[in-house]
Design goal:
With 146 residues, the chain is an alpha+beta fold. Helix content is 40%, strand content 16%. The protein has a single domain, classed as Nucleotidyltransferase, domain 5. The chain is built from 4 helices and 4 strands. It has a 4-stranded mixed sheet, sandwiched between helices. The longest helix has 24 residues.
Length: 146
């Protein structure tokens, strides 16, 4: 039980860290992902007005026929393509990808890659913001031999 509580705490901290970073630094709408065991859900949220602009999930009636089981990478790719098409139709071209407490791996990565391939700009893949002044690390001192 102790390990389960620790995992929940780590996930909660990761979720707050990722979300706060996105909300603080980005002026783009936020594309938020939630995954359950059987389905994956994604919505694009405007944090300034607190409204959901576009949403898609593997549980949608339109997508359910072509997906089948919603808890795998193929379903995530289909949902990623659908959210990109709906966002572009609504006039959204750039969004900030909010993966919440999920690591960028598996279904979450498949969804993001499919949305990128369909024409939605989620930012550069796998890059971190560049700091203005990066100081070089000082050289290590050599130990004197006795």
């Amino acid at each position: 039980m102790k390990q389960e509580k620790q995992n929940q705490l780590q996930r909660r901290r990761r979720r707050f860290r990722v979300r706060n970073r996105i909300k603080r630094d980005s002026t783009r709408p936020r594309m938020s992902v939630f995954r359950s065991l059987k389905h994956i859900y994604v919505q694009i949220i405007d944090d300034a007005s607190g409204r959901t602009l576009v949403s898609a999930s593997s549980n949608d009636q339109q997508l359910k026929g072509e997906i089948g089981y919603g808890g795998n990478c193929d379903a995530a790719k289909t949902v990623g393509k659908a959210i990109a098409e709906r966002a572009l139709a609504a006039g959204l071209k750039q969004v900030a990808f909010d993966r919440a407490e999920y690591k960028y791996h598996g279904r979450v990565a498949a969804l993001a890659d499919a949305a990128r391939d369909a024409g939605l700009d989620l930012g550069a893949k796998g890059t971190e913001p560049v700091k203005e002044e990066e100081k070089p690390k000082p050289a290590k001192k050599e130990k004197k031999k006795k």
